[in-house]
Automatic annotation (TrEMBL):
<dbReference type="InterPro" id="IPR011705">
    <property type="entry name" value="BACK"/>
</dbReference>
<dbReference type="Pfam" id="PF07707">
    <property type="entry name" value="BACK"/>
</dbReference>
<feature type="domain" description="BACK">
    <location>
        <begin position="41"/>
        <end position="152"/>
    </location>
</feature>
<protein>
    <submittedName>
        <fullName>BACK domain-containing protein</fullName>
    </submittedName>
</protein>
<dbReference type="GO" id="GO:0005829">
    <property type="term" value="C:cytosol"/>
</dbReference>
<dbReference type="GO" id="GO:0022008">
    <property type="term" value="P:neurogenesis"/>
</dbReference>
<dbReference type="InterPro" id="IPR011333">
    <property type="entry name" value="SKP1/BTB/POZ_sf"/>
</dbReference>
Length: 293
């Protein structure tokens, strides 16, 4: 079955769901899953939310995570529903600077004020987003200069909020005071090795490309590379390839690095299998005890 573009497919899906044409609806969803892209990301994401299509939703959020800066700088971002803005702010992994995220969210809030027919003053912008959702912006993780020149000038923070955030930004790393705003910076959706830290990657499908082969891996957590496995002559040994707006990420690595990564992934897979067996045995034992009680 052929479909004429994403927009027409979404309209067809609405009609198919309304009149219970389930096979047609499934075909529409399959088409959307294969055509998730930045150009139509918000319309597809909203469709996934409306129809509770979890797989489609995950594909959309994977694209948002991997290409956050491109996505939030789209002109149609200001027209999305608040639930999508909140979903983005709730992510621990995003490919954009916090100050950029703040700027785009405030522009969305100003646009929402226009829809609500209220003036787009700072107090109303916070009202449009909601204080609980506003607290998802990680002000303490921002650069001090950016915070002083952009956030303070915007006037969205109250005076009693500014000093504690500035104290966190200016003090050396260590114990953080109890603030309503998260202090931990968001992670980037790629593998980057720091001399003192392990590497981590967002949940997604990752492809590692060696000289003669590739390895695909579905990550549902972190990929950690131990310090004794890192090449000593490199700060970051995984260079992310340039990619289009569509996930998943792909990494070029040499053969030695490829072997170390595959070894690591095998160990993670074994741990995941062991954990699954443990959980199954635990559930089975509970069911048997309940049955013979």
């Amino acid at each position: 079955m052929g479909f004429q573009g994403v927009t027409n497919t979404i309209h067809t899906l609405y009609a198919a769901r309304k009149y219970c044409f389930y096979d047609l609806a499934r075909a529409c969803v399959n088409y959307l899953e294969n055509n998730v892209c930045a150009e139509h990301i918000f319309s597809i994401l909203q469709t996934a939310i409306n129809f509770h299509e979890d797989r489609l939703l995950n594909l959309c959020m994977r694209l948002v995570i991997n290409n956050t800066s491109e996505v939030i700088n789209r002109e149609d971002f200001k027209n999305v529903k608040k639930e999508i803005v909140v979903m983005i702010l709730e992510q621990d992994v995003l490919n954009a600077k916090e100050i950029e995220l703040f700027d785009r969210v405030m522009k969305w809030a100003a646009s929402d004020c226009d829809r609500l027919k209220i003036s787009a003053v700072p107090l109303n912008q916070r009202f449009a987003l909601g204080d609980h959702n506003f607290a998802l912006i990680r002000f303490p993780a921002m650069d001090g200069k950016e915070f002083a020149t952009q956030v303070l000038d915007s006037g969205v923070l109250r005076k009693d909020e500014i000093i504690p955030i500035l104290n966190v930004i200016m003090q050396p790393p260590g114990d953080k005071p109890n603030l309503p705003y998260p202090c931990q910076p968001r992670r980037q959706p790629c593998l980057a090795i720091d001399p003192l830290d392990t590497a981590s990657v967002a949940s997604s499908e990752i492809t590692f490309i060696g000289e003669w082969r590739l390895h695909r891996f579905n990550s549902f957590g972190h990929i950690a590379v131990q310090s004794d496995e890192r090449p000593a002559d490199k700060r970051g040994f995984l260079g992310e390839c340039k990619r289009s707006c569509s996930p998943p990420p792909r990494f070029n690595v040499d053969e030695d690095e490829f072997e170390k990564i595959v070894k690591n992934l095998r160990q993670l897979k074994r741990l995941a299998i062991d954990e699954a067996h443990f959980q199954w045995n635990k559930m089975h034992k509970a069911n048997m005890n309940a049955h013979y009680r």
